[in-house]
Write a structure and sequence with these properties.
UDP N-Acetylglucosamine Acyltransferase, domain 1; 161 residues; four-stranded parallel beta sheet; alpha/beta; 19% strand; six-stranded mixed beta sheet; 4 helices
Length: 161
């Protein structure tokens, strides 16, 4: 429930509550009970997450603790991605495959993603990385990177001067 309280606005709370509910369903061993409890999840995911918020955050997705979603509209995350703790994500973000037969991103801890950013392909994003608004990230970057542009480049060394 900490994940829900952590959200800055109502729709972020709703989106995370639906995700957490779906995630907990995967732990239920009894198939009959899981199928019965899946009915409200499918309804909420279809009507609220996909219909109203135009987002896709599948219950299969593995996200660490401390996620914060600002303006949870148009967020698409591939179910096979791995996401660390303390992710901050904004609207219109896509995290997924670059091509149909490709891999998916792995995001470290304390990653902040700006509005409209795209993170695509079999890549790794290091801990404590900031991804700027509308950046298109298609290659791996180490920890403490600051990524901007299309294609994304790391400007962290330029800011240290």
């Amino acid at each position: 429930m900490k994940e829900i309280k952590n959200q800055p606005e109502f729709w972020g709370k709703a989106l995370i509550a639906i995700y957490v509910y779906g995630r907990k369903l995967t732990r239920i061993k009894n198939k009959f009970a899981r199928r019965i409890l899946l009915i409200p999840y499918v309804f909420m995911d279809t009507i609220i997450t996909r219909g109203l918020l135009n987002s896709q955050i599948p219950h299969r997705l593995k996200i660490g603790i401390g996620i914060k979603i600002w303006h949870p509209f148009g967020i698409i995350i591939h179910p096979d991605c791995l996401i660390g703790d303390n992710l901050t994500i904004r609207h219109q973000v896509t995290i997924g495959k670059a091509k149909d037969d490709g891999g998916v991103p792995i995001l470290g801890n304390n990653v902040s993603i700006g509005a409209g950013a795209k993170i695509l392909g079999d890549i790794n994003i290091g801990d404590n990385t900031v991804i700027g608004a509308n950046a298109v990230v298609t290659k791996s970057f180490p920890e403490k990177s600051i990524l901007v542009g299309c294609p994304a480049v790391d400007i962290s060394s330029e800011l240290k001067r």
